[in-house]
TrEMBL record:
Domain Yippee: 1-74
Listed InterPro entries: Yippee (IPR034751), Yippee/Mis18/Cereblon (IPR004910), Yippee_fam (IPR039058)
UniProt keyword list: Metal-binding, Zinc
Source species: Citrus sinensis
Tagged with keyword Zinc: yes
Protein name: Protein yippee-like
PANTHER family named in the record: PROTEIN YIPPEE-LIKE CG15309-RELATED
């Protein structure tokens, strides 16, 4: 999963943010909103609105994009080489 820390996806023209909902994830209960591609309508990730556990508050306001659902500017997929370290995320349990 690709975590976007320094990009405001809500200001982007190619995605939109859906309704907030409560979702139980591996790290606890979170209020999240799905992120949609405005071109095709597919869910491409989610945004953490609220973390209900103190240890998860660092996630608030951050977004997660699923790499296999996102294309690069040339239309190619973003893939991670097997040598790169990729940490797990709450999506693993969704």
């Amino acid at each position: 999963m690709l975590t976007i820390d320094h990009l405001s996806l809500t200001d982007s023209v190619n995605v939109s943010v859906g309704e907030k909902e409560e979702r139980l994830m591996m790290t606890g209960m979170h209020t999240v909103a799905d992120i949609f591609c405005v071109g095709c309508g597919s869910i491409v990730g989610w945004k953490y609105e609220t973390a209900h556990e103190k240890s998860q508050k660092y996630k608030e306001g951050k977004s997660v994009l699923e790499r296999f659902k996102v294309s690069g500017p040339d239309g190619s997929n973003y893939w991670v080489s097997h040598e790169a370290h990729v940490g797990g995320s709450d999506a693993d349990d969704a």
